[in-house]
Fold:
Amino acid sequence: MSQSPAARLRGPDGLLLPLRAFLAIVFLAAGISKFADRRYLDSSSFMSIHAQISAVKSASPVSSLLTPIIDHSFAFGVLTGVAEIAVGLGVALGLFTRIAAIGGMLLSLSLWLTISWGATPWFTSADLVYLFAFTPLLLAGAGAYSADAWLARARREHPGRADDQTRRIILGVGAVAVTATLAGVGTLFRRSPAKSPAQAGGSSAATGASDSGAATGAVLTTTSAVGVGQAKAVKDPATGQAAFVLQLQAGTFTAVSAICTHQGCEVSFDASSKGFACPCHGSRFDGTGKVLNGPATAPLPTIPVVVDGTDVRAT
Structure:
């Protein structure tokens, strides 16, 4: 006896619909937004895929595999955006669902091993959750409410018909065409990055530097290497991690860690705002390390420095 539509919705097939809808929306939005954002494929931008991968390379467990991605960031950026749209479309339609699930898992795994590897504790990484969210679709398919189920019913009702393969080819070509169209639509709405609010001048007292003839800490850089309103990338001698020495006001030198307090990516200095931006998740900080925009909630750690003649030293 066949089930009523209401009963089928309460069964396993219906239970997959909310998961499919959520994953489809997330991956379609992620893919389209990559083509809509001018910064993503612009390797000179601190919010590009080039900057993202460069920022996490040293901490990633697959760092040796990331060099080709950095060297060919434009191609990998386009491929990632197209793949996300294809996965979202496949999950939404229930078309080649298991293939789409494998694609989604591979994308989530790659993001977990790079962008969100520094999540602390590890189980707070959203990419790890997405990785396992695709497993029901990989194991069970999309269920009755899908293009895959329609194709299977047509094959059962007309066994041996040559047009079964034709239907699959037409649907596959159609999916490719829609994926390309959605990527094209994203480029039509490409937007320039919004400018950050102007940052107040000055520096925190905790990191203010003053002349001292008796400084003995490690030399971070020289005063001439840091222009007014600029930052110089250095290494924190205490941790060995990336840091910045700044001269936001003439004659006043400060230093902050370059490690984002959200998930450990290296931030970039934005000269236009005299602040910092995380290329991985979009957190922004002012020149003293204070959080301006999340998801980071804690400021960048400050590094006490002192000016010793022409040297800027950690204290």
Observations:
- The longest strand covers residues 242-249.
